[in-house]
Design brief:
Length: about 425
Amino acid sequence: MKILISALVVIVVLAGAALAYALGPSAIATVERPMPESFSGAEVKRGAELARLGYCNTCHTVRGGDPYAGGYAIETSFGTIYSTNITPDEETGIGRWSQEAFSRSLREGLDREGHHLYPAFPYTHFTKLTDQDARALYAFFMTRTPIRRSPRENDLPFPLNWRPVLAGWKLFFFDSGRFEPDGNASDTVNHGAYLVEGLSHCGACHTPRNFLQAEKRDDFLRGGEAEGWTAPAIAGDLPTPKGWTEAGLKSYLTGSFTADHGVAAGPMQPVAENLAAVPAADVEAIAAYVLPKMRSGAGKLAPAAATSEQGGNGNDEGRVLYAGLCASCHEASSPARRAHGMNLADSSALNEATSRNFVNFVLAGVQPPEGRAGSFMPALAGSLTDEQLTVLAAYLRHAKAGLRPWDDLGKTISNVRETMRRADAEPQR
Ligand code: HEC
Ligand code: HEC
Ligand code: HEC
């Protein structure tokens, strides 16, 4: 039955594509590149903050590359999509795009010439942007340094490399439309909803997706995936045993270490780094909107009886590994502040149904954002064998979380090691 429905959807998507191809959205004429002086300082400043709130830098800048010049690779289950150059270069960037073309790309997922864009670009969320915010973003990007750099060709199989197919996808999964405030909610909560559902697209990672990569609306923020990490549920049943407070959430969202929830790492790290650079009122609004969704259910309570002293399951080797490799930072307070990790009993990574994040943390460690001070844990990929990590994980799951060992552990360890090998081998682009 599931296969039949899948096949049906695929057929309709292709038919939609053919239709949309025939009708075809139109190109918007080029303009003379606007003079930077034509924008007000206040507009450019808010544009910079909005660019932070939408993490434009994360996806449009390669490591060590020119800001916003594109080429950043986004791996999907179908292939690799590369971001474009959004500096105002007239040949390779968006220098000759009008305000109208720019706003349409963010809110309708179309480039200036009318080609459909891949939803790896989160326009399914950016569609909620107000005219005013789209104008401020335009002012910000048009006043950046133009960089000449041609976008890299996507690496996708047929028929997915044929953009008209996206018209069919959009027919099913894309709701174009501006944000509509809830009349019963406060201005703060409405602003938070506008950011979380729109520009800051929390659901792009924290909402599960269907087999065609569309977010499942009914499971909004109930746990998804991002770049080989699990983005834990932040609504409904949470994996974290400790509840969230407003102060704790705001600290976590802006990259500070919190005793109950650790520090934002993996794909959440650049989110927090950006949120640390926006006005407090924006973060406040995000927290005000998300927090009530988080109270609804702590996943499970950490068993009071389990302590790190118990060997458990006769797993003495696990206990010894933990004492030798981890306890100095994860038990009580370690003297070096930046090497102080949380009590692992409270860690979402340890309490999640999948071992993904736990393995990511242990093998890759935690490094602060480039050029910043912050929480540090060494990468232990070279210090632990697969067998040792398996034994250690079983010990911690039992002693700290009172849970059975993970079923997916062996597979996850080899996947994560493979991903790390590929990242190391990758040449600087
Ligand atoms: C999650 C990654 C991601 C984020 C975040 C992101 N983009 Fe993009 N963006 C992309 C990708 C990938 C494409 C190319 C899509 C394609 O080729 O179909 C793209 C395309 C675009 C385009 C179309 C350019 C062209 O030449 O066709 C514009 C404009 C753009 N992004 C602006 C922005 C702005 C402004 C922000 C922040 C508010 C932003 N993007 C945030 C991934 C991202
Ligand atoms: C690019 C993907 C991505 C985006 C966008 C994103 N997150 Fe996350 N988030 C993650 C990942 C991955 C983790 C797990 C990282 C960790 O444990 O350090 C995480 C962790 C969290 C946590 C901690 C959960 C726990 O149980 O420990 C909270 C809270 C959170 N995110 C809130 C948000 C909010 C609010 C937004 C939008 C403003 C957001 N995230 C946007 C990927 C993302
Ligand atoms: C040099 C100190 C140090 C050592 C040694 C260390 N860690 Fe960490 N660990 C940290 C810091 C700092 C963090 C980031 C703050 C946080 O999230 O607790 C962290 C984070 C983690 C997390 C993520 C917690 C969460 O949900 O946010 C896990 C899981 C973890 N460490 C497990 C281990 C294990 C298992 C070992 C031993 C094999 C280990 N660590 C050794 C310092 C250390």
